[in-house]
Amino acid sequence: xxxxxxxxxxxxxxxxxxxxxxxxxxxxxxxxxxxxxxxxxxxxxxxxxxxxxxxxxxxxxxxxxxxxxxxxxxxxxxxxxxxxxxxxxxxxxxxxxxxxxxxxxxxxxxxxxxxxxxxxxxxxxxxxxxxxxxxxxxxxxxxxxxxxxxxxxxxxxxxxxxxxxxxxxxxxxxxxxxxxxxxxxxxxxxxxxxxxxxxxxxxxxxxxxxxxxxxxxxxxxxxxxxxxxxxxxxxxxxxxxxxxxxxxxxxxxxxxxxxxxxxxxxxxxxxxxxxxxxxxxxxxxxxxxxxxxxxxxxxxxxxxxxxxxxxxxxxxxxx
Length: 319
Known about the structure:
Blueprint: H1 6-16, H2 21-37, H3 48-61, H4 66-83, H5 109-117, H6 122-133, H7 137-141, E1 148-149, E2 154-157, E3 166-169, H8 175-194, H9 204-209, E4 229-230, E5 237-238, H10 244-257, H11 266-279, H12 284-291, H13 296-299, H14 301-306
Helix pairs in contact: 1-2, 2-4, 3-4, 6-10, 6-11
């Protein structure tokens, strides 16, 4: 029996583990670059020192960021561990790129609301969830109708970072907007069904167990795209969620219009959510759970933000 190509095996294993399509795409690209660096030599014939040589090349010659080097390392380790069955044990000579330690950019309450209020349409509701619920932009855009419980005012964030589920709140001020958006999705879904479409992509296990669920409105994205597109994995023509690019562009433009000199991105609102909760006296463990951090040490970075800029220490000139 002919052995499957290495990229085919890689993609099948990633899909079996229910990783995102972006992870599949990124890992595949890194493996292609790794193989090309070694003159198209099959990875099973390469040794650990060859892996180290490539990663050091990224860090020293290409001067890539620490996160980029770690991304490449994750892809290569995945390949050797799960596809080639040759786990890498000795990476002692790997020169890791140094990851700079930056404090997160945080808006004041006034700045955050000013930016949100000057955004219009769907992006305004999305950014409202980033700031009001502490969501990552990917988590907000992946929301499905059934992830929102308006009676209990809570959101179930499924398969967040680290593939963990968590629960966070729905701000009362956003409930009317969410209800209106859900009704729009229902109307759009009804039209799609009438035209012979309306099927969405489910997690693989659910798709096998409940094949009819893919056309149920509860599984539709809360923020569906305007156009239907073919899913690269299944070949199904469906409505994916809107692009992150639209939200980033709206945030950047709004921040510029408000003459805010900070580097504002959608993730800035998640940072602001955490910092403002802590400054209001909420327990750091509660904030940790709402953010979905695995360790409280990650959440503690926001306490450093609170202790800067005059919030925690009084300058001697003001004594």
